[in-house]
Design goal:
Layout (H helix, E strand, L loop, with lengths): L2 H15 L2 H8 L3 H15 L4 E3 L4 E3 L1 H25 L7 E6 L6 H12 L5 E6 L4 H6 L5 E5 L8 E9 L1 E6 L9 E2 L8 E5 L4 H8 L10 E6 L2 H9 L5 E4 L2 H4 L5 E6 L5 E8 L7 H14 L2
Parallel strand pairs: 3-4, 3-5, 8-12, 9-10
Antiparallel strand pairs: 1-2, 5-13, 6-13, 7-11, 7-12
Helix pairs in contact: 1-2, 1-3, 1-4, 2-3, 4-10, 5-10
Keywords: DNA-binding, Transcription, Transcription regulation
InterPro entries: LysR_HTH_N (IPR000847), LysR_subst-bd (IPR005119), WH-like_DNA-bd_sf (IPR036388), WH_DNA-bd_sf (IPR036390)
GO cellular component, one term: protein-DNA complex
Length: 296
């Protein structure tokens, strides 16, 4: 690949990480090699792109201006490479979706990817809450839109896209159903329904366990997916904590979705293998990040 494109790709990773060692690890090169690439890029564009110090890396004004331009170039090159090497009948890009994915942005991401590469087939694969690492590892999906925390181990990489407030899902006749918002401590005495496979730190994060009071929430029932959790809530068997987009993506009669005002939001992440298995993964990633940045 042209060294100009390689340098731009490396710059984009470094601009995201703002840390030479982490960026080099993602790029599978050594930190000195990455530093040389960036230095050559700065020479070529005639501007200083980064401010380096022993403890941190920051983008200069020129670096911030270059970032979207570099992303456009890399995305275009990847699209051309896929087009030139592809043939009719190439397998579709398999996109894993956990719960509502990126919420209302999911459809926009898919539409813009399809518009950018009309010949690309897209295959959606709905995944369980904690299935992403395994699904990427065994090739069931090429890329996933998941809700953190995700256990991203060796061979995987994740990028934060958007933050979503969390809501309390309750039956519409629940005492809290008519509230605009609640505090997490107001739910200390409630029973919760959770995913069947939820455990450990991830479950504790979603339930806010332990609570500020020191108490742990009670779990009353479990279900395999979002629809099952909503059924349990509608049946009055417990309440659930979900992202705000659940109110539209999984809206149904008999349920209310109440903002939880005092807990941190959930983060929607784009998760891929460190070495993409499909040529369209870089295109999908670039589109997803741009859609998320613009919030459209």
């Amino acid at each position: 690949m042209d060294s100009w494109v390689v340098a731009l790709r490396s710059f984009l990773v470094l601009a995201e990480e703002l840390h030479f060692a982490r960026a080099a690890q993602r790029l599978h090169i050594s930190p000195p090699s990455l530093s040389q690439q960036i230095s050559r890029l700065e020479t070529r564009v005639g501007r200083r792109l980064l401010v380096r110090s022993p403890r941190r890396v920051e983008l200069t004004d020129a670096g911030r201006e270059l970032r979207p331009l570099a992303a456009s170039v890399v995305t275009a090159v990847d699209a051309v490479a896929h087009w030139s090497s592809g043939a009719p009948g190439d397998r579709p890009l398999r996109v894993g979706i956990v719960a509502s994915g990126a919420g209302p942005l999911t459809g926009r991401i898919l539409a813009e990817v399809a518009e950018a590469q009309p010949a690309l087939g897209l295959e959606l694969v709905h995944l369980g809450f904690f299935d992403v690492p395994a699904a990427l590892g065994d090739g069931r999906v090429d890329v996933a839109l998941a809700i953190a925390p995700v256990a991203v181990g060796p061979g995987l990489t994740s990028t934060a896209l958007v933050h979503e407030p969390r809501v309390l899902v309750v039956r519409d006749d629940h005492p809290l159903a008519q509230r605009v918002s609640v505090g997490i401590s107001e739910t200390d005495d409630l029973d919760f329904v959770v995913p069947r496979s939820a455990e450990g730190d991830a479950l504790a994060w979603w339930l806010v366990d332990p609570r500020p009071s020191g108490r742990s929430p009670r779990i009353s029932a479990r279900a395999d997916g979002v629809e099952g959790l909503m059924e349990l809530c509608a049946a009055g068997l417990g309440v659930n904590i979900a992202t705000r987009s659940a109110a539209t993506q999984f809206a149904r009669p008999g349920l209310a979705y109440v903002d939880i005002a005092d807990i941190e939001p959930a983060t929607v992440e784009l998760v891929t293998t460190a070495v993409p298995r499909h040529a369209a993964v870089p295109l999908f990633a670039a589109v997803a990040q741009e859609v998320a940045r613009l919030g459209r």
